[in-house]
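Worked example 2:
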Amino acid sequence: ELHEGESDARLIDLHRIFGIARRRRWWIVATVVIILVLTAIAYTMVPRRYMGTASIALDRRADQIIAGESPNQELPTDPPTVDTAAEVLTSRSLAARVVDTLNLQREPGFGQAIDGPVLSPAAARSRAISKVQSGLAVKRTGLSYAIDTSFTWTDPKHAAAVVNALVDEYIASQRDTKVDSRTNDNKLLRE
């Protein structure tokens, strides 16, 4: 029944709605069951993905080259410095070092196609480098000097091995750069 100022369009008849739902309950139940079954099938068909992760903290201490300098003096760290380190971590040259260290050019899924023709060594290496780069994710942790790295792959052992090798290679390259710089500084001081 309508009261003053109410129209037919504004009233919701809950008894009528529940009556329709009750009469069509088997269609509703069948639809829900079909959606659940299709979701379960889709879930089982999607390949599992595993993520290996590591964090790197940038060392911003200056080296003591001359006697009397204050040791472990802090260098200024600005966002471009941290962003540059993140770019180095995703670089093709570092990915190439990881591929060479782990010999991924011979691995199915990396250098060699799983169900395709055998590639030449150069093509397999290039393909493996691209796969490593495409699976990598590198991001700065907030405003800190830490960088989170991760690698996602279908095999948990490869996911962990690649991210660990990436961090190892990055640290080795930074150490080599620092040693070369220190050697050059010592040569200049001797002259």
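The mean pLDDT is 82. Helices lie at 14-23, 25-45, 79-89, 92-102, 121-135, 156-190.
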